[in-house]
Design brief:
This protein has helices at about 1-25, 35-80, 95. The chain is mostly helical. The relative contact order is 0.05. The mean pLDDT is about 85.
């Protein structure tokens, strides 16, 4: 375990030393995210939220359609009971249909 810790510390130290050399040469940095990396992360975040918004809107649309179907079914039930095609087997005609 101690050998692994020493090796890991040595690797981190070597990476920092190499990063300083790259910065001195004017070629950016190994440890700091590049502008392209930041832009890609921003795109991923925006894409996630757009996908979440589309899913939420789809959920709302499906629920709205389900509600509209229930209203149509109730209206048809009331018409059928009123015209005598079927009895009031749900016992809701007196409350819901008038």
């Amino acid at each position: 375990m101690a050998v692994c810790d020493l090796t890991l510390k040595k690797i981190k130290r070597d990476i920092k030393r190499l990063d300083r050399k790259i910065k001195a040469a004017g070629r950016g940095s190994l440890l700091e995210p590049s502008l392209a990396g930041k832009i890609e992360a921003k795109r991923a975040t925006i894409g996630f939220w757009l996908l979440a918004l589309v899913a939420f809107l789809g959920f709302l649309f499906a629920n709205f359609q389900d509600f509209q179907d229930e209203l149509l079914e109730q209206r048809q039930y009331c018409l059928d009971v009123e015209e005598g095609y079927m009895p009031d087997y749900k016992h809701i005609y007196s409350e819901m249909c008038k």
